[in-house]
Design a protein that fits this description.
Structural class: alpha+beta
Radius of gyration: 21 Å
Shape: globular
Order of helices and strands: EEEHHHEEEHHHHH
Strand order of the largest sheet: 1-2-3
Number of helices: 8
Number of strands: 6
Largest sheet: 3 strands, antiparallel
Length: about 230
């Protein structure tokens, strides 16, 4: 594994200590070769969209450990996305609003309050997303006031307009991200409101970067973070 020869933080070479640990010639950080390999394997699985269960079985690691590491990697994806946004935030951009509702809920009018609403910004080919406040908190108020049919009709109208936008903007980068998001999110078979922003940032990160760049960025940020 070539990257074991260079520190993922500063890029300098390692030298081996008497106890088998590796020490960077540049930043002086010590690393265990076994830990480096394990993290590399988990990052490879994450970038390749391998499920936590499949990765755990293949790597001989417990499912809770893989699930925990994947959660850490999603938080790193979000951190990297925010840093990249800060570098572009003053540039001109285009944006569109998007509503996502799980397919299993789309036939129920009251389920519109479970929809996830997010903005997608396109900075000359580099995308950034912002999750809007959830409507879930207003569910009971709308139902009690018998406004669900009104809101459901408005939601359906918006979805029809969004579909028209998709059809007429087939090559739009934002639309390509929406298609990628729709295909990717179903792998998780249900995502809670609390964790949805992290999964969205994972997809934003993977959409913006090639697999090799994604692996490199995650390795660098993983080892820069406190253990």
């Amino acid at each position: 594994m070539q990257w074991l020869e260079a520190c993922p933080v500063c890029g300098n070479s390692y030298y081996r200590l008497g106890d088998g640990m590796l020490k960077c010639r540049g930043c002086g950080r010590k690393q265990s070769p076994r830990r480096l390999r394990r993290v590399a394997d988990l990052i490879d699985a994450f970038v390749a969209d391998e499920s936590a269960a499949a990765a755990a079985k293949r790597l001989g690691v417990s499912y809770p450990a893989v699930h925990r590491h994947f959660g850490t990697l999603r938080r790193l994806c979000a951190r990297i996305c925010e840093q990249e946004y800060e570098q572009r935030r003053d540039q001109p951009c285009e944006y569109e609003e998007y509503f996502y509702l799980e397919r299993s809920k789309r036939s129920r009018p009251e389920a519109v309050f479970d929809a996830q609403n997010f903005l997608t910004f396109d900075y000359d080919g580099h995308l950034y997303t912002i999750v809007m406040p959830s409507l879930h908190q207003y569910r009971h108020r709308f139902i009690d006031d018998d406004l669900t049919p009104v809101y459901a009709a408005e939601f359906a109208r918006f979805k029809r307009q969004s579909r028209i936008i998709k059809i007429s903007s087939r090559h739009n980068n934002i639309v390509r991200f929406w298609d990628y998001f729709e295909k990717s999110i179903v792998r998780y078979k249900g995502v809670s409101d609390e964790t949805f922003p992290l999964y969205l940032k994972e997809m934003e990160f993977k959409f913006n970067h090639s697999p090799e760049t994604a692996r490199t960025l995650l390795r660098e940020h993983y080892f820069r973070s406190p253990s």
